[in-house]
Amino acid sequence: MDRADIQIRWMVRTDLDDATRILRSVGEDDTERRLNSLLERPSVMCIVAEIKKEVVGVAIYDIGRVSKIKILSLAVDEPRRRKGAGKSLVSEIFLKLNKKRNKVEASVSEYGLSAHLFLKSLGFKAVAVLAGAGGTSEYKFLYKPSDSSKEEA
Q1: What pTM value is reported for the model?
Q2: Is the same domain home to 95 and 131?
Q3: Is 97 in a helix, a strand, or coil?
Q4: Which residues are registered as beta bridge partners of 75?
Q5: What is the per-residue pLDDT for 3?
Q6: Do residues 16 and 78 both lie within one domain?
Q7: In a shared domain, residues 18 and 38
Q8: How far apart are CA 89 and CA 22, in angstroms?
């Protein structure tokens, strides 16, 4: 499958069932009610990855802070992973960076090794460990364009 087959677009209400299913498949308890609530917030953006008119991934991010974008949820349908949909979603988020809003933050469960490796492959760095709900921890990842360009030079 070519990455050109992946289309990124804004999420619409008819995508809620697919988005909910995909998010639940990765252990997120995002219900339709929560997604509806997020869609109503002006600072929260929801995008989907689509292959042949089928929603295969979802990204929810908050642009409410002046200095950063925070990824709230990012998931790709299990059979469609490792084909570029997740990278395409994050690349779309990177396009929202500018001089003032110059970093992207994401938090991942300590048990999400594949998510850790995925974010690292995109230039994110683990910068903190946060106490999570139920005694588990989360790793806070940060992406700064200047960090990745230093490594490439």
Answers
A1: 0.86
A2: no
A3: coil
A4: 58
A5: 60
A6: yes
A7: yes
A8: 14
**Contact assessment for residue 45 and residue 63, using Cβ atoms and an 8 Å cutoff:** yes
Name residues whose C-beta falls within 8 Å of residue 25's C-beta, 6 or more positions apart in sequence. 75, 77, 78
Q: Are residues 11 and 85 in the same domain?
A: yes
Q: Tell whether 79 and 129 lie within a shared domain.
A: no
Residues 41 and 86 in one domain: yes
pLDDT of residue 150: 44
Task: Convert the pLDDT of each residue in 32-55 to its tens digit.
Answer: 777 778 778 889 999 999 999 999
pLDDT digits (tens, 9 = 90+) for 91-140: 999 999 998 999 999 999 888 888 999 999 999 999 999 886 677 889 99
Q: Which residue has the tokens 């690349």?
A: 91
The identity of residue 149, as a single letter, is S
**Domain encompassing residue 117:** 103-153
Q: Looking at the structure, do residues 107 and 38 belong to the same domain, yes or no? A: no
Q: Is 25 helix (H, G, I), strand (E, B) or coil?
A: helix
User: What are the residues facing 141 on neighbouring strands?
Assistant: 106, 126
Pair (82, 131) in one structural domain: no
Residue where the block lists tokens 């570029």: 84
Q: Residue 5, SS3?
A: helix
